[in-house]
Specification:
disordered N terminus; mainly alpha
């Protein structure tokens, strides 16, 4: 098999000088800065989930209200990704990443000092904005750190650290909560954030900047569109039909105004110019479907293990951990393949393996042993780790020079939008069906197979 097919090569756009990359110690230091900032963002999101029951009790809040400690972070993160990616192209990707780390540090202190749920939720939203500063330009920085013919390695390394953060988060959170109160899950961010800030200031490369003025109106409309749609759909999925429908309609109207407003913009906030390119659009859709599948599994599986397989809380964490281990391990392995083989091959195989893992879990008897559950979970995670880096590379290399920020933002949006959609589908299935555990697993399998089919058909759909 050749490195890439001629059909795929003609869709790759890059500037040999602009994307020359760094070498030696410069690359190691710059990539270390990117990965440390990434780990800070991913790790804190995963840790907070573990502390929700304690936070609810300590702040005298119901479980349904305490969930907003997680939702506020994710919604703020998703809403701000594209405007911040656009801003990064103007002020420099490295500068925006440094600002994000600083904002994340300040928000972590605010979280730790919060005295009630409202204060904590607002501080978490601010943390989400800081995380969006980091995530929106994360892959764009990798695009400038690695030369074009080695980009897949950098993106795979990025995926490895995402997997490590997801895997370490619950364990680290449980360890902290076993010896300290919940504010310490935020205090622990300070040394990591300070180290990331110092390394980023010293090592991140200067990147070319766009001279097109910042689109303030488009940025505000983008934030409103994502936020209102997300809050409205969350209400609908929890059977709050009146207010949910009103807020969702408001979100749809904001989307209509945004898309109309952006039609004549040279570098629109929502990169409709990039989405008009079929290879880019298909890669984003494949990424979206992959993360819909993953969150249908991740959110619902603890309930499946508890209600169907009758496992306790400690065992549930151990049985889900192989997913993250598989993702991280395969992300490392695929780093040597992503630049040699097309995404239409690697990502398709990866999502098919993921769907097969879900299918194997679906057919398990209710008296299955822990090993039977664990190896199937690991198998599905390995498939997901194989899928991500080649597809992420496909998103970045099909964007033209000068649009790295928009491509990096859309990559993160595809991931977060897929995760949010998967979580909303779980909420809807739990609202509709009395015992939806295996229904969610079946839906995850269908979503993964849909993504695999889209990925496999890239060559024909872009013709």
């Amino acid at each position: 098999m050749t490195a890439t097919t001629e059909d795929e090569q003609q869709h790759e756009e890059y500037d040999s000088k602009r994307h020359a990359g760094l070498y030696g110690a410069q690359r190691v230091k710059a990539m270390s800065a990117v990965l440390l900032a990434l780990l800070l963002s991913v790790l804190d999101y995963a840790i907070a989930n573990v502390a929700l029951p304690l936070i609810a009790v300590d702040l005298h809040a119901s479980s349904s209200r305490a969930i907003w400690v997680v939702n506020a972070y994710q919604l703020a993160n998703l809403s701000c990704l594209l405007p911040l990616a656009s801003l990064g192209a103007r002020v420099g990707f490295g500068r925006l990443s440094q600002f994000g780390i600083f904002l994340f540090l300040i928000a972590s202190v605010a979280c730790a000092l919060s005295q009630n749920l409202l204060e904590l939720t607002l501080a978490r939203a601010l943390q989400g904005v800081g995380g969006a500063c980091i995530m929106s330009v994360n892959i764009a920085l990798v695009r400038f750190i690695y030369p074009h013919n080695e980009l897949g390695r950098g993106i795979a390394l990025n995926g490895l650290f995402v997997g490590l953060g997801v895997a370490l988060g619950p364990s680290l959170g449980s360890l902290i909560l076993s010896v300290a109160s919940w504010p310490w899950i935020f205090w622990v961010n300070l040394p990591l954030a300070l180290a990331a800030l110092a390394l980023a200031h010293a090592a991140l490369p200067e990147t070319p900047r766009s001279d097109i003025p910042t689109d303030v109106v488009g940025s505000l409309l983008t934030v409103a569109s994502f936020a209102l749609t997300g809050v409205g759909l969350d209400g609908l999925m929890h059977a709050d039909f009146v207010s949910g429908a009103v807020v969702t309609v408001a979100g749809v109207l904001c989307w209509a105004m945004l898309l109309h407003y952006q039609r004549e913009r040279l570098e629109p906030i929502v990169p409709v110019d990039l989405l008009a390119r079929r290879p880019f659009l298909l890669a984003c859709l494949v990424g979206f479907m992959g993360f819909v599948a993953s969150n249908l599994y991740i959110v619902a599986m603890p309930f499946t293990l508890a209600s169907v397989f009758h496992r306790g809380a400690g065992t549930i964490g151990l049985l889900i951990a192989p997913w993250a281990v598989g993702v991280a391990t395969m992300s490392f392995v695929v780093s040597r393949l992503a630049d040699r083989f097309p995404a239409s091959v690697l990502s398709s195989i990866g999502l098919f393996i993921t769907a097969s893992g879900f299918c194997l879990l679906w057919f398990l008897p209710t008296d299955a042993g822990n090993w039977d559950i664990a190896w199937r979970t690991l198998f599905a995670g390995c498939g997901f780790g194989l899928f991500q880096p080649p597809n992420n590379r496909a998103i970045m290399v099909t964007a033209p020079p000068g649009r790295e920020g928009g491509a990096s933002g859309m990559l993160s949006v595809a991931r977060l939008a897929g995760q949010t959609t998967g979580a909303l589908l779980v909420a809807a299935l739990f609202t509709i069906f009395p015992n939806p555990a295996f229904i969610c697993l079946g839906a995850a399998m269908v979503a993964a197979l849909t993504g695999a089919a889209l990925s496999l058909g890239r060559k024909y759909l872009v013709a």
